[in-house]
Write a structure and sequence with these properties.
single chain, 104 residues, alpha+beta
Length: 104
């Protein structure tokens, strides 16, 4: 089940190629992990961390490293960031996008 933060980010930013016309998939399986959002062309994974992630930081670090070995960057946002500062979240996504485009 999606969290409120996941739903908000999906509806306002990621669905229907709203983010620079890139396709994002929800709840996508990669390397035995289910990621919240993935854009395969940008090699970007977005995770929305709820309360329970406070207790599994070590597992998240290992997971992010394994996904990095596959060439993916993981951006993590808290549920609170999505709910209370969606503009800030979009700003960070835009900065990631700018860095990718400037590297090409």
């Amino acid at each position: 089940n999606s969290t409120l933060g996941e739903i908000m980010l999906w509806k306002r930013v990621l669905r229907a190629k709203n983010f620079h016309v890139y396709q994002f998939n929800r709840q996508f399986i990669i390397a035995n992990y289910i990621v919240d959002f993935i854009c395969r062309k940008l090699k970007l994974i977005i995770e929305i961390d709820g309360y329970s992630h406070q207790f599994k930081h070590h597992k998240d670090v290992i997971r992010d490293k394994e996904l990095a070995k596959l060439g993916y960057t993981t951006l993590r946002f808290t549920e609170a960031e999505i709910k209370h500062d969606l503009d800030g979240v979009v700003w960070r996504l835009e900065k990631f996008y700018e860095n990718i485009m400037n590297a090409e």
